[in-house]
C-alpha cells in the first residue's frame, strides 16, 4: 500500500470515529462500528491503529495541526488551536468525557506538551543556568493551556474565539507577579 493510500485510509478511519463521537459516547464506540462507518473490515483498522485510543490521538493531532505550518510562532499556534477547537467544539466537548486510564484530558495535555516542547527547542534557549529545563517548561504550559481549553469547551464556549485568544495571550505572556504588582497597567 502506498504512503498516500495509507494516509488516506487513516484519515477515513478517523473521520468515521469523528462522526460516531458526535452521535454517541466514546466508550460505547467499537472498532467494528468505526469500520462499518467507513465501509472496511476490522483488519483494515488494525493495519493502521492498535486501538481506538490511538485513533483518537491521531485524529486530535490531525484536527489541531494538519493546517498549521508556521514555525516558532507560538501566538499563531494558540490562535490556530483555539480556532480549531471552536470549529470542532462538539467533538472536543464529547472527548473530554473520556475518563479512566486513557482519558482525553491527559492525552490532550501530552499533545500540547509535545508541540510546546518543539517550539521551546526551536528557540535554542540555554537552560543550564535556569531552575527548569525545556521539558518542564513545556509540561507546565501544556497543563495550563489544557485547563483553559477544557474550561472553555466544557462550559459551552461561552466566550468568543477572540476573547479566548486574548485570554490565553494575557495569561501566557504575563507572570503571576505581573498580575499582583501591576494590575491592568502592566499587562500586555
Describe what you observe in this structure:
By secondary structure, the protein is mainly alpha-helical. It has two domains: 50 residues, Homeodomain-like (Arc Repressor Mutant, subunit A, Orthogonal Bundle), CATH 1.10.10.60; 120 residues. 71% of the residues lie in helices and 0% in strands. It contains ten helices and no strands. α7 packs across α8. The longest helix is centred in the C-terminal third of the chain and has 21 residues. The radius of gyration is 19 Å and the shape is globular. The model has no long low-confidence stretch (mean pLDDT 91).
Secondary structure layout plus pairing:
Elements: H1 3-21, H2 31-38, H3 42-48, H4 52-65, H5 74-87, H6 89-95, H7 104-122, H8 134-154, H9 161-173, H10 176-186
Helix pairs in contact: 1-2, 1-4, 5-6, 5-9, 7-8
Task: Briefly summarize what is shown.
With 188 residues, this protein is mainly alpha-helical.
Which features does this protein show?
188 residues; mainly alpha; Arc Repressor Mutant, subunit A; globular
Strand content: under 5%
Uncertain segments are none
Helix content: over 70%
Q: How would you sum up the global shape?
A: globular
Query: How widely separated are the two ends?
Result: 51 Å
Rg for CA atoms? 19 Å
Q: How large is the count of helical segments?
A: 10
Order of helices and strands: HHHHHHHHHH
Give the tally of structural domains.
2
Mean pLDDT: 91
Q: Give the tally of β-strands.
A: 0
Report the major sheet: none
Structural category:
mainly alpha
